[in-house]
Amino acid sequence: MTEVLKILTTYVHNITQHEILNIIYNSIETCTSISIHYANTYTLLLNKYDKKFANNCKKITYFLPDGVGVYLASKFLYGKNGFKSRITGTDLYFKLLEDSSKRNVKFYFYGGSEKAIEKLKDKLKRKLCDCCIVGLKSRNFSNYDKIIDEINNVKPDILFIGLGTPQQEEFFTKYKDIINVSVIMLVGSGIDFIAGTLRRAPLFMRLIGMEWLFRLFIEPKRLWKRYIIGIPHFVINIIYQKLKSKSHEVQLS
Question: Is there a contact between 92 and 65 (Cβ–Cβ < 8 Å)?
Fold first, then answer.
């Protein structure tokens, strides 16, 4: 059983990329259903303060540690028992796509912009020609009944849902029980990153944990609240959690 660490009000799995890949492939092989989401500073705060969002996330199987802030928070709260590593979504998606031909894995993409879907079609043909993509729909396609029928007809192994938060969580909650897919991944802007319509930070920024700053520079209007207000808010909450846990330890002793 995978260990979890409580960050704010969310139990996040202390897991490596290699381990989650094995879990994904085992789920496909055994035809068992799992769902995967990412725990970053934004989703952790939403999970604490937004009851509707928290309820929509209750049925998600795995929350993966994403972002340097969450990784450092785990070390601050739990010391050497903090997260083993970060799991960067885009790296995981490309690994799944690269491995797909030898594992006969089928994918369905639902989300991203119209431009991203068109670019993704071309990119998959040129660079990932061995991938088995059984469906591509942008987030603008809102006939959910038709989407579900198509997904169930083409029978993908992995469904990427990239509708953005909180729309993707609402979609997941409403339809999870009638989607016949082994693995559902809620990927936010992941489809746009795979397609290349959203640029990733340079490697050196990713290595030093400053990818968020690059994203803020690229999309300031959309992300300024998430980072300029959200990061200090997250830090304050983590300090409070630490103080509260120390207070509890004192009372027990």
Answer: no
